[in-house]
Design a protein that fits this description.
Structural class: mainly alpha
Shape: elongated
Radius of gyration: 17 Å
Oligomer: single chain
Order of helices and strands: HHHHH
Amino acid sequence: MNQLHAPIKHHADLPTEEALIASIIVDSSAAEAAQVVGADFTCPSLRKLFDLIMALHAAGEPTTGRHLLNAMTTAGLIEEIGHDRIRNILNNSQFEVAHARFYSERLRAESIRRKVLIELSQTISDIDK
């Protein structure tokens, strides 16, 4: 067959990723609505931040302010993510804590779509060989 094809593209939904993280930072009870895992995030630094926040939540630790910054420092993420990124997420994200489940469902759907597109692209590539 040897047909050339472009890989199937998928997009990252960074505003939704940031909105979910902001919701959980502002109100840790929003973590209960999060039906996603870190692997559902497209941005590596947001994935790591989400995993850290969820680990703090699972351990009964606060996920706000100084506690989060201390945990980021301990985990070696403060350099990668930075204070400014957290501030920007909280100040610039269009989010409502009450919509955390919506953000979670949207991220999960995008993650599933991304995985299907990756597998489809790989299958097409295998067929073309």
